[in-house]
Design a protein that fits this description.
Bound molecules: ligand G3I
Shape: globular
Number of helices: 14
Structural class: alpha/beta
Strand order of the largest sheet: 1-2-3-4-5-6-8-9
CATH architecture: Alpha-Beta Barrel
Strand content: 5-15%
Number of strands: 9
C-alpha cells in the first residue's frame, strides 16, 4: 500500500514527465535506466546512426548490440540509393530495404529513408533519359513505389539530396537538365501525396556556408509559397576539429528554423585527419592519393587528439541541446570508427576516428564527454 505522500509523489512525477513532452520517446518504448546516448537526450531529440548491410542483416553482433543500447533512430547508409533499390526501369530490389524497415519496427526505432532523389549513386539507365515527360513518369514512379511500400513504416524521408552548389545555385544533374528546377517541387509533391504523414526532408552538406544556406532557404520558401510540404532541412554535419565554428552552426540552425522547418543533423561525423586542399563537405566524387603525412595515426589516435575531439563533440552537443526546440534528430554517419566512410574519403584506406565508438566498439573519450551532459 502506498502512503498519501507516496501517491502524491507519483502524481507529481507523472505530471512532470507529461509536461516535458518527451520528443524522442514518442516512437520509443518505455525508457530504460541504462546510461546511453538515447536516454541522455531523450527529452531533446532522437539520436540515430547510419547502418550498413552488416548491421541491417544482423551479421555484426557488436554493432547491433550498440545500436539497440545507444540509439533510437536509424538511416540506411547505402541500400536505399537509386542504383541499389531501382537498378533497372522495371526492377526494384526491396529485399534488403524490407529488412532495414523490419529492423526499425522490431526495435521501435525512428526510421529514416535515405534517399529518393540524388544525382550520385544513381542507376545508369536514369542518366540516359532525355525527355521531360518520360523523366516525370520515372521520378513519380520511383517515389510512389518506394514511399508507398513503406508508408507508415518510414518516419522521415530524405526526399532530395545534395541538389545545391556551394554558391546556392542548383547543381547540374540529369534531373535539372531534363526537368528544370521544378524537379524539386515534383519530388516533394509526389512524396507528400504518397504518404501525407511522413516527414519530408531536404538533405545536404556544408549547410553552414552562408551562400549555400541562403540557397536552401530560398528553396524552402519557394516550396512553402507553393503549398508544397517540406518539414525539415537535414544539415549533414560532415565536420572537422576546427570547423565549422559553433557560431556558424548556431546561425544556420536558427536560420533554417526561422524559415519554418525543423533541423535534422542527419550525417554527423568529425574527421581528425589532414584534409587535402582544405576540402570541405562530402562530395563523394573527390579522391586523392594516400601518403604517410595524410594518414598520421595508422595505429591509434594520440590522447592529445582524443581530447580535442572529445571537447569538440561536447561543445557541439551542448549547442544542439540549447536548440532542442529546433532540432528533432541527431544522426551519426555510422556506428563506430571502423565502419566510417571517412576511412576511404577523400583518400582511400586511411585510419580515421570520427565517431563516438572505436574500432573495438568501445566508447571513446568523445562518448564520455557527450554523456557528461547527462549530469
Ligand atoms: O559494396 C562495394 C564493395 O563490393 C566493393 O568491394 C567496394 C570497393 O570500393 O565498394 C563497395 O561499395 C562502396 C559503398 O560505399 C559501400 O561501402 C562504394 O564504392 C562507395 O562509393 C560507397 O560510398 C558511400 C557513399 O555515400 C556513396 O554512395 C558511403 O558508404 C556512404 O557513407 C556515403 O554516404 C553519403 C550520403 O549518402 C550522402 N551524404 C554524404 C555521405 C558521405 O559521402
Amino acid at each position: 500500500m502506498k502512503s498519501p505522500i507516496q501517491i502524491f509523489g507519483c502524481i507529481c512525477l507523472l505530471a512532470v514527465v507529461a509536461a516535458c513532452g518527451n520528443k524522442a520517446s514518442e516512437n520509443v518504448e518505455a525508457e530504460h535506466v541504462d546510461p546511453s546516448l538515447k536516454n541522455t537526450f531523450s527529452y531533446d531529440f532522437f539520436v540515430g546512426a547510419a547502418i550498413n548491410n552488416g548491421v541491417i542483416e544482423e551479421k555484426d553482433s557488436l554493432a547491433t548490440a550498440l545500436l539497440k543500447k545507444e540509439f533510437n533512430s536509424i538511416t540506411p547508409e547505402n541500400i536505399m540509393k537509386w542504383m541499389h533499390i531501382h537498378p533497372s526501369p522495371d526492377k526494384f530490389n526491396f529485399e534488403i530495404a524490407d529488412k532495414y524497415v523490419d529492423l526499425g519496427k522490431k526495435n521501435n526505432l525512428h526510421t529514416v529513408g535515405h534517399t529518393l532523389v540524388w544525382h550520385s549513386q544513381l542507376a545508369d539507365w536514369v542518366t540516359e533519359v532525355n525527355d521531360s515527360s518520360a523523366m516525370t513518369v520515372i521520378l513519380k514512379n520511383h517515389i510512389n513505389s518506394i514511399v508507398n511500400r513503406y508508408k507508415g513504416k518510414i518516419d522521415s524521408w530524405d526526399v532530395v539530396n545534395e541538389a545545391l552548389n556551394e554558391d546556392g545555385t542548383l547543381r547540374e544533374s540529369i534531373f535539372l537538365e531534363v526537368l528544370g528546377d521544378s524537379y524539386l517541387e515534383l519530388a516533394f509533391e509526389t512524396a507528400a501525396k504518397a504518404d501525407p504523414d511522413v516527414q519530408l526532408v531536404y538533405n545536404d552538406y556544408n549547410l553552414t556556408n552562408p551562400e549555400k544556406r541562403a540557397g536552401v532557404i530560398r528553396l524552402v520558401k519557394k516550396l512553402k509559397e507553393k503549398n508544397i510540404k517540406i518539414d525539415a532541412v537535414g544539415m549533414q554535419g560532415h565536420w572537422n576539429l576546427e570547423g565549422p565554428t559553433l557560431e556558424e552552426i548556431e546561425t544556420s540552425i536558427i536560420a533554417y528554423h526561422d524559415a519554418g522547418v525543423k533541423v535534422s543533423i542527419s550525417e554527423l561525423d568529425i574527421t581528425v585527419l589532414p584534409n587535402p586542399w582544405d576540402l570541405e563537405g562530402a562530395e563523394v566524387s573527390q579522391n586523392f592519393e594516400n601518403s604517410p603525412s595524410m594518414n598520421p595515426y595508422p595505429e591509434s589516435l594520440p590522447d592529445s587528439v582524443q581530447n580535442i575531439l572529445a571537447k569538440r563533440y561536447q561543445d557541439i552537443f551542448k549547442l544542439f541541446r540549447k536548440h532542442r526546440d529546433k532540432i528533432d534528430r541527431v544522426t551519426f554517419w555510422g556506428i563506430n570508427d571502423g565502419s566510417s566512410w571517412l576511412n576511404n574519403w577523400p583518400i582511400d584506406d586511411r585510419t580515421n576516428y570520427p565517431l563516438l565508438f572505436d574500432r573495438n566498439y568501445r566508447p571513446k573519450k568523445a562518448y564520455e564527454s557527450v554523456m557528461e551532459l547527462n549530469k
